[in-house]
Structures are given as C-alpha cells and as structure tokens.
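**Polypeptide and fold**
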Amino acid sequence: MKIFIAGIGLTDFGELWDKSLEDLLRQASAAAIEDAQLDFSDIEAIYVANMGAGTFEGQMHLGALVSSWFAHHPPAMRIEGACASGGLALMAAEDALESGRYQTVLVVGAEKMTDVSAAEATQVLAGAADIQAEYGSTFPGLYALLALQHMEAYGTTREQLSAVSVKNHKHGLDNRHAQYHKEFTLDQVSKSELVAAPLRLLDCSPLTDGAAAVVLTSKKTARQTVEVIGRGHGMDSLTLAQRESLTSIGATKRAAKQAFAQAGLKPTDIQAAEVHDCFTIAELLALEDLGFFKPGEAGQATLEGKTTYGGQLVVNPSGGLKASGHPVGATGIKQVAYLTKLLREEKFSTVLTHNVGGSGATAVVHILQSVEATKKKRKSL
C-alpha cells in the first residue's frame, strides 16, 4: 500500500509565551488539513505525539483534547516515546493505514517547555532515562559520556563537534520557523559555556515550544506529491551501562536497516537527511549509524563541508534540533514536514528522517520520496 503525505503544518518554534499547548496543536493541525485541501470531516483518526504535557502543563488526555475540535469526534490517541514520540506517532498512523482501518489520518505533535524553569524542564526530560539506574544524570551528561568515548576511540576533536553546530545554525537561517536565526563560528562554539565536558552550551539543543502536523493518506488526492517509501523502528537498552557500544546507537542501526530494506535503497541514494542532533555528538553518531560515513569519519566529513549544500548530502537543512529547536513531541513530525516541503520545491527527490528517544533507546527512521522520483524508479525496473 502506498502512503502519501497530503498536508503539512508547522508553527514557529521558540519561547512562545503567548501560545498555549492547545493553541499550538490547533494551529499546526488546521494548517496541515488546509494544506491537504481537505475538511476536518475528512480526518478519520488522530495520533498526538507528546512527551511531557502532564508535567509541563498539567494537561493529559491529549487525544481527546484534539478530537474535541472535530464535529464528528474521530478516534484519537496520544503516543509517547520521549524525544521519539513524533516518529512513533507516524509509525502508528502508517500501520493503521496499511491495515485498511483508515484512509486519511492526522498526526500532530507538540510540546510546551518554556513555561517552567530550566531546572524543572531538565527534571521532566530526565524521565526519558532510567530514573533508578541513571538517577541524578542529565542528558547533557549522558551524551557527554558518548562524546568522550567517541573521542577516545576515533580521535574526534573539539573542532569537529563545533562544525556540526556551525553548519546547522547556518542552515537554520533558511527556516522561517526556526528558534534561532544566528550564525556562529567554530571558535564561538568551542569557547561557549561548559555544560558537561566536553559538551558546551552551543553543542546542546534548546528548550522549545512548538508544534508540527502532517496528514497521511492512502487515497488519491490533489496533494499526492510525496510518498513514504520506507520506515523502521529500532530499540536498545534504556541505560548506557547495558549497551554493547558507546560509540554507536544500536537502535538507529536497526531502524535504518528496516527502512532501507523496505525502500529498496542504500545510504548513497539519500540526498538530504534530518537527523536527531539533540547534541552535536548525536549528529555524528547518527551519520555513522545510518551508513552515510564509516565509524569515526563523520566529524572530519562535517568539518570538510560534506554534510552541507555542495557536499555528499545535506544534513539538517531545517537547522536541526540545534537551530530549529526541539519541542520534544513535535520534532519527529517536524522533520517529515520540513523535508516534505523541500521535496515539493524539488530541492531533493529522496530524503531520510531520523528521530531518537532518550540517549538512544528508541529510534525511528523514515525515507520519503517525491512521487515523480518514485514513478521514474518503477519505470526503470
């Protein structure tokens, strides 16, 4: 069965103190339905991605909240998988379409993170780790351990980490919804405030408010321009201590293997990718685990410009989590929505998204292709 992205909707990402969680969900949902050239009555089911609304906002039961805006009250559910909530919501929706249960569904993700203090937000996000085995740890601390291991194993340098941030902030200038529209130099990143050695402030994605939505359909519609041709869902142990490796994310490898197999493609077929750069080291790990570069080579490749326009592939054209922002429940859906926009604009024809939960316990990979590219591929077979 073919699954198409019929509509996309994005809010601004940032410190949106004049917007409530409900405002953001409404805005993104309405934009996606309008973009799909459909009515609210055409939506048969709703999948809401969110990690922490119950703690951040005191609002639970988000499926019912969103469904209540529709006169016909379509079935709705909330999906939670830490920072991979958006990717998992997409997977659930796609499974429902493939089963034949529905033909047109809405997937919307949102997070409202800046109405609490940074300390409170850090505590909420820490719930994506093992709160007993990794008690007292923070995600900058956990990813710092991964960075130190990568540096020890492969000689990854401070400058290579900084190059990720510099590149993504430059890309973010082209994304009108991005939280930050500001460029940085390698020196500025490398000398920014230390958070958890070796990670510094400009290695870390920010706290963000925002929402993203897509309409998925198996019907023939006027907006049948982008197809989901591959997807995968991988898991690993929740704690770092139980991992086979600290220089690789096994969940990403498993998800990528599934997605590439379903799409019938290989990494060299991908022209652009939105990867989960919650920290600069996370982008390097992703590029190696997805097969774009050999282990230990992504850092130098980034420094040499191989992951931007004119290079081997364009990584995080939206600015990634680093510059675009990271409203946790929305991120995986934002990746798909933003790349759909670029596919429609014919900037690329085949792209990939990579969404991770926690320190790598969950990973979701999607491969998207413009319908025209898919037609050409089938004619050549």
